[in-house]
Design goal:
The complex is a heterodimer. By secondary structure, chain A is α/β, with parallel strands linked by helices. Chain A folds into two domains: 92 residues, Elongation Factor Tu (Ef-tu), domain 3 (Beta Barrel), CATH 2.40.30.10; 129 residues, 3-Layer(aba) Sandwich (Rossmann fold). Chain A is 18% helix and 32% strand. A six-stranded antiparallel sheet of chain A has the order 4-3-6-1-2-5. Chain B has one domain. Helix content of chain B is 10%, strand content 41%. In chain B, the strands form two sheets. Chain B has a five-stranded antiparallel sheet, with no helix packed on it. A three-stranded antiparallel sheet of chain B has the order 3-2-8, with no helix packed on it. In chain B, strand 6 and strand 7 form a beta hairpin. Classes of the chains: A alpha/beta, B mainly beta. Chains A and B meet through strand 6 and strand 11 of A and strand 1 and helix 1 of B.
Chain lengths: 247, 81
């Protein structure tokens, strides 16, 4: 019917878990069959709601890991004191139901027409929405040049390692391991700061578009350094996860 | 509790306003700082949800649910949307 698609109410619905994939010791990707999914944009998130036997409800937001057009997937990092993530990473199995609403977000999103060059900056599980952007770029045939700078504690904490080892044409992946590096590690071995960004980031004169996602302290440090180096604030998009397992 | 940002209340804002709001422009009623909702400082369980100006720390928005009814206070904002 004409007009019915113009405004969609955001309602809670039951999705079916189709797969749970191990990414790292504490991170799982949950793939979902969502019956009334209207499609999403790269960078968006969804809300998960868990209700216990006593009616206590806990809600959390999770970034969508898959590209538009792919089955909906979220990648979840287990927080030991979390109310929601331990259930998602440890208990959830294929065939289970999961209550969710989405997609959500109109700011931290990227479409090929937004151009670039793209600078993607991830701290820990902040890589999740950026992975959706990378896959969307590849699936749409975009040739926008991309640099992804990804900070993790150790090599074992790197999410999507196999995928990042074989980046699409035009994508450079630069990793830094802040706590422990394996023998022969050729990447960076320190926290992301202004000096590291000066090495890695596109010069401001190329009018890059930056997406920064991770723990709040990581996002603050990186976004401030980019603006100080000449990036216009409106070309630095940020999403803060609060405290997470670390970078 | 560590602060998040306005992306974290995208779902809540759709509940309240019926449309996506994280990219909507705001202006702080106290200091005049202008930026999209997504870049505001958000505390999720304060109790309730509190949104503050990134420049002057004024409370811009507050959302509190009591007796299954949500109370919305937008008095700190000069401009929204």
């Amino acid at each position: 019917m004409a007009g019915t698609a113009l405004r969609r109410r955001l309602t809670w619905q039951l999705a079916k878990v189709t797969a749970v994939t191990t990414e790292t010791a504490s991170v799982r990707t949950v793939t979902l069959d969502v019956p009334d999914w209207p499609g999403h944009q790269a960078g968006q998130h969804l809300d998960i709601r868990l209700t216990d036997e006593d009616g206590y409800v806990a809600e959390r937001s999770y970034s969508i890991a898959s590209a538009p057009g792919e089955p909906v997937a979220i990648t979840v990092e287990r927080l030991d004191d979390g109310e929601v993530s331990p259930y998602l990473t440890d208990e959830l199995r294929a065939g289970d139901d999961l209550e969710l609403r989405g997609p959500i977000g109109g700011y931290f999103i990227w479409e090929p027409d937004d151009g670039g060059p793209l600078l993607l900056l991830a701290g820990g599980s902040g890589v999740v929405p950026l992975r959706s952007i990378l896959r969307h770029r590849e699936r749409t045939g975009s040739t926008v040049p991309v640099r992804l700078l990804y900070s993790s504690r150790t090599l074992d904490d790197v999410i999507y390692q196999a995928e990042l080892d074989q980046p699409a044409r035009g994508v450079e992946v630069i990793e830094t391991l802040t706590r422990h590096q394996p023998p022969g590690w050729a990447g960076y071995a320190r926290r992301v700061d202004a000096a590291l960004l000066a090495d890695v980031a596109w010069p401001a004169a190329e009018m890059p578009l930056a997406y920064v996602c991770g723990p709040t302290s990581f996002v603050e440090t990186v976004s401030q350094a980019l603006v100080q180096s000449g990036y216009p604030p409106e070309r630095v998009k940020t999403e803060r996860f609060g405290a997470t397992g670390g970078t | 509790m560590e602060a998040l940002d306005g992306n974290a209340i995208g779902g809540l804002l759709i509940e309240v306003f019926g449309t996506e709001m994280t990219a909507a422009p705001t202006v702080c009623g106290n200091c005049g700082d202008a930026r999209p909702v997504a870049e505001l400082v958000v505390y999720l369980r304060a109790p309730g949800t509190i949104v503050r100006c990134r420049t002057c720390d004024s409370v811009l928005m507050a959302f509190v649910t009591a007796h299954e009814r949500m109370c919305v206070d937008l008095q700190g904002l000069a401009v929204l949307g």
